[in-house]
Amino acid sequence: MLDSDIILGHSLVPKHEIMSDAAVERVLKQYKVTKEQLPKIKAEDPVAKAIGAKKGQVLKITRNSITAGKAIYYRVVV
Questions:
Q1: Residue 70's domain is classified under what CATH number?
Q2: I want to staple 71 with a disulfide (CB 3.0 to 4.6 A). Which of 14, 35, 65, 77 is the partner?
Q3: Where do runs of H (alpha helix) occur along the chain?
Q4: Which domain range does residue 32 map to?
């Protein structure tokens, strides 16, 4: 089993996806923010490395939430 399989398959690691440029633009417009205002995630983060995220890309993180069902977070890779 590869390290990325272990990392991404762990029960405590939420789903991480690299967003398309069009999807990023929609999110930035929806929340009226710039990419620089988004929270950050380091390119060296184990999950970012496992999914092949590059600096400047935006990740969509979907977490299970007891109160909301699902919670979506966005992070820009630095």
A1: 3.90.940.20
A2: 65
A3: 3-9, 21-31, 46-51
A4: 3-77
